[in-house]
Write a structure and sequence with these properties.
With 356 residues, the protein is an alpha+beta fold. It is built from 7 helices and 15 strands.
């Protein structure tokens, strides 16, 4: 495993910065909130940033469709959500969104097949960080996240989604353009209503003593094939949204994916990743309800006939809070979302291979 390169003094590279005005404000905000800790355990940082830094939502955002009448339970739930958030006004008045926030991430102890602790860090060994996000619509976005002295950047210009990490450089994401999962965690009510507009209603469930309606989405086989290659086959990616029956708001997201990895001449290994996110602290921003906090828990299970010690289970957590969210920030243009010139079209599945 290559050692991670240290973070530069300023989190945005001026040579590649296409949004200098917002970049200056971002640097000032970052410096005033955090000191960079370069003594972190870098291997765990790589895992945390790969998995939790800027994951994509499993499905693409669909264009808005006029609903003349409510013909399904799912449509009723989404109508309730849009009314509760007041997000319809955003479609005609909001040109862009700017968000800053803080995160705290931690690697939990790795568990063996019998559930006993293995190697890894303790629950208390957490890393603090912060992020900034710009968005013009659900398919045009840019996020920069700094954690423990390392930075990841991800973005989409509406045609290709990409990510830059210190250990891989810039690389394109496989499959169609999808929204940032962080935006679906209560930050973008319009995107939430669009992605779940074609969901399937699968009943009701209580989450943290909140009675919820449950909507389910699955990535289709074409997209799963596009996100696979010769050694990694994505078998499924499913996400479930829990909407409060009382308030209509999205209060919990749970997605799970299963990937089969097999190199020539070797036994297959399976990676199952589950992310559960509690979404809370909704507040009104210009009349629209926006979630200002939450927690995510990730369980990664690796299993296969070649693992002599049995399945390997790793747990990690993230807590986030939103410091500032503003609509229609002056000076944000399409140039801010242009992919890096050195973008590699061959996307390495680093998030699946971090155990190596």
């Amino acid at each position: 495993m290559n050692r991670l390169s240290p973070l530069s003094e300023e989190p945005i590279n001026e040579e590649n910065n296409r949004c200098s005005k917002k970049g200056n404000s971002w640097r000032h905000w970052l410096k005033s909130n955090f000191s960079i800790n370069i003594s972190s355990k870098k291997s765990n940082l790589k895992i945390l940033l790969s998995v939790l830094g800027c994951p994509l939502f499993p499905v693409s955002v669909h264009p808005p469709q006029p609903i003349t009448r409510v013909s399904s339970s799912a449509q009723y739930i989404i109508q309730h959500f849009t009314a509760a958030t007041g997000c319809r006004k955003l479609e005609s008045t909001v040109k862009n969104v700017f968000v800053t926030g803080k995160v705290r991430m931690a690697m939990e102890e790795e568990l063996g097949s019998n559930g006993s602790p293995g190697h890894g860090t303790s629950a208390g060994d957490s890393q603090k960080g912060c992020f900034v996000m710009w968005q013009m619509d659900p398919n045009k976005w840019l996020v920069e996240l700094v954690l423990g002295g390392q930075k990841v950047v991800a973005g989409s210009d509406g045609n290709v989604a990409w990510r830059h990490t210190p250990w891989l450089g810039a690389h394109a994401a496989k499959g169609g353009v999808r929204p940032l999962r962080r935006a679906i965690q209560g930050l973008d009510p319009i995107a939430i209503s669009r992605v779940f507009s074609r969901a399937q209603s699968v009943g009701e469930k209580s989450i943290s003593d909140v009675d919820c309606f449950v909507l389910k989405l699955s990535a289709d086989q074409t997209d799963l094939a596009d996100r696979s290659d010769n050694t990694a086959e994505m078998i499924k990616h499913v996400i479930i949204g829990y909407f409060s029956q009382k308030t209509g708001l999205l209060v919990y997201l749970e997605d799970s994916s299963l990937t089969r990895i097999q190199s020539p001449g070797s036994f297959p290994t399976y990676w199952e990743t589950t992310i559960g996110s509690k979404i809370e602290d909704y507040r009104r921003v210009d009349g629209v309800m926006i979630a200002h906090g939450g927690q995510s828990t990730v369980i990664i299970t690796m299993f296969g006939d070649n693992l002599k010690t049995g399945p390997s289970i790793t747990r990690m957590e993230e807590t986030w809070t939103i410091d500032d969210l503003a609509f229609n920030v002056p000076g944000l243009s399409m140039d801010c979302f242009i992919p890096p010139e050195e973008l590699q079209k061959d996307f390495p599945e680093d998030s699946l291979n971090w155990h190596q």
